[in-house]
């Protein structure tokens, strides 16, 4: 049982990645992102997840610098945006992200979306960065099974992580099974389905039973489903509260009830049908 914010899962290359972190999608650069990341780090979070597309890497970097926590104790993720995919452009985009973050290396670099005809070249660039030690782990985001199979046909390094939309209404069973079989760690984005699950009766009932909130139950379910999770919030009390999931455990029956809520329903774009 995962008992603290600092607990990690070991990726297939031996890198330790925290089970729980802060996502900063749609968090404004400047004070908003600096404050939320600083609050998170001061509250014990060690994993921060950003992306070039979020346009807040500089603020994240500032917060890391201001936090006073040694760099090696933190786990920082950013992502390669679609417009920068391709071999040379990916290498350039990585350098730009690193410069904005003010870091010497990254812990995890992800291909943000499976852009057809480009993600293989992007992956070659990721492998180069990985071999040069500029990033401790490389992975993908929003990849379906067929994307992973296609990528791995020619890859020298198997992705360490696949970050996907995952919540009780979207269980992603096929992707998760494939990742498990291939040693790829699954990570959830939008774990709380952008607030759309807070009135779900099954979740409310389980939450009441444990004296917890629905958010706590969902985030605990993620971790007990062996999925790394990075809920996003800009509110100080919410950032602290989201992490309050390490003092209880869902029963097998709780887990099965939550699993049964799946409707294969997305709130984000479909990785097989996006145009950005």
From TrEMBL:
Residues binding substrate: 112
Residues of the active site: 54
Sample GO molecular function, one term: oxidoreductase activity, acting on the CH-OH group of donors, NAD or NADP as acceptor
Organism this protein belongs to: Metabacillus mangrovi
Lineage of the organism: Bacteria, Bacillati, Bacillota, Bacilli, Bacillales
Pfam families: Aldo_ket_red
Homology family: Belongs to the aldo/keto reductase family.
Name listed for the protein in its UniProt record: Aldo/keto reductase
Domain NADP-dependent oxidoreductase: 21-263
Site feature Lowers pKa of active site Tyr, where: 79
Domain of life of the source: Bacteria
Keywords on record: NADP, Oxidoreductase
InterPro entries documented for this protein: AKR (IPR020471), AKR5G (IPR044500), Aldo/ket_reductase_CS (IPR018170), NAD(P)_OxRdtase_dom_sf (IPR036812), NADP_OxRdtase_dom (IPR023210)
């Amino acid at each position: 049982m995962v008992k603290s914010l600092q607990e990690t899962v070991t990726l297939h290359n031996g890198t330790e990645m925290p089970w729980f972190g802060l996502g900063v999608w749609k968090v404004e650069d400047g004070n908003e992102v600096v404050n939320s990341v600083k609050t998170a780090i001061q509250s014990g979070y060690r994993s921060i997840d950003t992306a070039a597309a979020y346009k807040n890497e500089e603020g994240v970097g500032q917060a890391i610098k201001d936090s006073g926590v040694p760099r090696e104790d933190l786990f920082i993720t950013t992502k390669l945006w679609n417009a920068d995919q391709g071999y040379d452009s990916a290498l350039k985009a990585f350098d730009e992200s690193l410069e904005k973050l003010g870091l010497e290396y990254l812990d995890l670099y992800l291909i943000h979306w499976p852009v057809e005809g480009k993600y293989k070249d992007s992956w070659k660039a990721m492998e180069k960065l990985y071999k040069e030690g500029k990033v401790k782990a490389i992975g993908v985001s929003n990849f379906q099974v067929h994307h992973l199979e296609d990528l791995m046909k020619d890859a020298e390094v198997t992705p360490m992580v696949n970050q996907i939309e995952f919540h009780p209404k979207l269980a992603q069973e096929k992707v998760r099974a494939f990742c498990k079989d291939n040693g790829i760690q699954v990570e959830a984005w939008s774990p709380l389905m952008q607030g759309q699950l807070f009135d779900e009766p099954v979740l409310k009932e389980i939450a009441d039973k444990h004296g917890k909130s629905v958010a706590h139950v969902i985030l605990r379910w993620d971790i007990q489903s062996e999925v790394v999770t990075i809920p996003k919030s800009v509110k100080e009390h919410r950032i602290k509260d989201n992490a309050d999931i390490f003092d209880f455990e869902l029963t097998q029956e709780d887990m099965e009830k939550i699993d049964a809520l799946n409707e294969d329903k997305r709130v984000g774009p479909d990785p097989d049908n996006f145009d950005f």
